[in-house]
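User: I'm preparing a small set of examples for a lab meeting where we compare how different chains pack in three dimensions. I only have the primary sequence for this one, and I'd like the structure in token form so I can line it up with the others. Please keep the answer compact; I'll paste it straight into my notes.
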Amino acid sequence: MATLAVNTQGCMNRSPAFSFYPDKWQSHTRRLSDSAYRLYHELLCWMWQHADDHCSVQASPEAVACAVAMPLDTVRIALAEIQNPFSPLLKCEGEKWISNGLRKEALKQGERRDKAKSSADARWKGASGMRSHKKVDANAQVEQCFPSPSPSPSSSPKEEVEPSAPFSCGTCSATFEDGEQIQEDPQQEKKAPSFHTQFIAAWSEAYLAVRGEKYLVTAGKDGSAVKRIASMGLSVAELIALARRAWASSGPKFWHCEKAITISYFVSSFNEIRAELSAKPTTNNATHSKNPSEHPRNRFIAGAGTGPTTSEIIKRNKERAAAECAAREAAERLSSPAGPVAGQVAPATEHASSDFGSL
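Assistant: Understood. Below is the structure token output for the 359-residue chain.
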């Protein structure tokens, strides 16, 4: 049976609250008046907070009036309603009035607390058992690895003792030299630097050598760009060589190469940069002539070459329009029923058409 714990000062480790069931409460207190209802509520709260067993009070109106701080006459009238002989709310045991509901609640909470304590103790013991391990004398194990002492040198002055070479113990990884253990540096074997570290270092070095200034790394953009270019399968040397070629290229054909001064732009325009660097120069002298005026697009502007000027083009257009008009008039006269007028010679349409064609 669960018991309520008591500390060394004699005060109980009390639970701050008890369960409240509205259906039972209303069925028991519905017949009470306002003063009896208040007294019964105050009395239950006092029992749970101050009684040794959480559920009792001295069976006297005076003790109840002192506990709930209400007038004695009011308490007597209210107790008469509470302890109605047909359905008393408090059970009388000796010189105490007992609340059966609070007694059940106290026992239930005590049992729950005992189970929780037992479960916690079991978990604690299990955790302590897992942490426990057999103690081993480390010094005793190390002593087994030390070699036997070397023999003392001979008394003969001609014999020289050769220095002993380092050797390893067969049962462990310790190495000894002249009877002393050689401590191995755990940081001696370092991991190879990552692709990100190699690329940033090589880019910064090449940037300083070609452009003469230190490259300022942008952590966010450059870091994500290096992560993307690492998936292309190219080595750091190949990428840096391509970057050096891009920096050395200039001109209208190398627009992306000239802007590839940051890692982020170099990666985002990687295909365009390779296309510009791998483009083959054409052999058309007219198109790629060093003199801009010799380009076909600039002949009319610069007045170079054999192309007609603007005034010549306007003059030819006017002549062509006049020839077309004369040809139409001649065709209309020839097709009329009356024919040409007497004494009037029809114009030579062939000559007009030939002039039109010469234009």
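A couple of notes for your slides: The first strand starts at residue 56 and ends at 58. Strands lie at 56-58, 91-93, 96-98, 167-168, 175-177, 180-182.

User: Perfect, thanks.
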